[in-house]
Design a protein that fits this description.
F-box domain-containing protein, alpha/beta, F-box-like_dom_sf, 421 residues, F-box_dom, five-stranded parallel beta sheet, 10 helices, elongated, F-box_SCFL_complex_component
């Protein structure tokens, strides 16, 4: 049969209807929304679809819930053929979800290949890479820097990474970094530079454990983080030692929740440790940071701050000895940590160092976010103390119930002329 003439071929394409009428680029974009195994299955639809999956704009590898790509050997074989078949075709988005809480990935042969799969995605010029894995231990990624001019967003779950990996100088366009349940390691007092990063989330991670023991104290080396372009920062309930943040002049908002860290008063846990509330910060002194802020100096340029801490943690109390001026701060959210002891020194100090503050929210003796009681007070412009921001006009108190502790806080606010109903 003679080949179809140009006019006949165009006529056939014109007569195509539905999804078959779409251009190849649009089909490749649509295929990217499917799990990888379903995208590959489209090869049987028609001749036109035979190799279309190889150029899909996104790759979604899902091996969770005991569904497709389980057991482990099926996942291994599929991944090896999938990546070989795709070659180096570029990716806009790539997601790995390997295992879940009920189906933990334990196969050593598969785990030994995971880093290669991760690096393959980076080599495909992926822009948005999300890697989530559930194992019996943190999956260690090779201690080599990521090299990519295309990567703009990286999200990691339950992996262990080291100092070289955290050096993103060879990924100059990375703007979003999300680390959850990860283990971060670096040399003591090392400097980690996130030169291009604008958004950083570190939650439920194990941070920078460097510890030496002597006969009297534990001495920590703190990792320093330099992120000059950071706009938003979230740190929540991380284990290990808090890093020192260098000044972040572009910071707009930050939420810091300190719980279960190594920066806590040992008196709460063991009677043998000779420590009291006044000496907690001495207990936490570290090489190179004993006379400077750990967190607050780096956060001092933010416009919105949420600072939450458990009573046993001493980092904020320690930092208040060198309390910086929060010259841009307009919205401040604190918990009851800042209202203890009853002299309210920490609360008063941070208010006095926030000259343009507009709104203060106190989350008192409550985990939130749904509070049973919410009280709102106004600041009298005529009775406002000279040390308090002239812009402060709203004070909110969120709590479970009104008890003696809440009454003490309200009394302090009232006596200080920064609360009226």
């Amino acid at each position: 049969m003679p080949p179809a003439r140009k006019g006949e071929k165009a006529k056939k394409q014109h007569e195509a209807t539905g999804i078959d009428a779409l251009p190849n680029g649009v089909l490749e974009h649509i295929l990217g929304f499917l799990p990888a195994e379903e995208a590959v299955r489209t090869c049987v639809l028609a001749r036109r679809w035979r190799h279309r999956w190889k150029s899909a704009a996104a790759l979604r590898i899902v091996s969770a819930g005991g569904e497709f790509l389980a057991p482990a050997d099926k996942l291994r074989d599929f991944m090896e053929h999938l990546l070989l078949g795709r070659g180096g075709a570029p990716l806009d988005f790539c997601e790995f979800r390997l295992g879940d809480l009920d189906n933990v990935l334990e196969d050593e042969d598969v785990l030994s290949r995971v880093d290669n799969w991760f690096r393959h995605a980076v080599g495909c010029n992926v822009q948005d890479l999300r890697f989530r894995i559930h194992t019996t231990r943190s999956q260690e990624l090779e201690d080599l820097p990521l090299v990519s001019k295309h990567l703009t967003r990286l999200a990691l779950f339950d992996v262990e990474v080291h100092g070289s990996f955290l050096n993103f100088s060879r990924s100059p366009n990375l703007q979003y970094l999300e680390l959850e349940c990860c283990k971060l390691q670096s040399e003591s007092t090392a400097l980690i530079t996130f030169q291009s990063l604008k958004h950083l989330h570190i939650t439920f991670c194990c941070l920078f454990l460097h510890m030496t023991l002597d006969s009297r104290a534990r001495i920590y080396g703190r990792t320093r983080i330099y992120a000059p372009k950071l706009v938003s920062l979230v740190m929540k309930e991380n284990l290990g030692t808090s890093p020192i943040f260098e000044t972040m002049p572009s910071l707009m908002e930050a939420s810091i929740e300190i719980a279960n860290s190594s920066d806590h008063c040992m008196l709460w846990n063991a009677n043998y440790w000779d420590c009291n509330c006044e000496s907690c910060d001495n207990y936490g002194n570290t090489r190179g940071d004993s006379k400077s802020c750990v967190l607050l100096e780096g956060l001092s340029k933010a416009k919105s701050l949420r600072l939450i801490s458990e009573p046993v943690e001493f980092i904020f109390k320690r930092d208040m000895r060198w309390c910086p001026m929060f010259s841009n701060l307009k919205n401040l959210w604190l918990n009851d940590y800042w209202c203890v002891p009853d002299d309210f020194n920490m609360l008063a100090c941070i208010l006095e160092h926030s000259p343009i503050l507009e709104k203060l929210t106190l989350q008192l003796f409550s985990e939130g976010p749904e509070h049973k009681m919410e009280l709102e007070g106004r600041v009298s412009p005529t009775e406002r103390p000279a040390a308090i921001s002239e812009s402060l006009n709203t004070v909110e108190v969120k709590c479970v119930k009104i008890d003696e502790r809440i009454v003490k806080v309200l009394r302090f606010l009232h006596v200080s002329d920064i609360w009226s109903r």
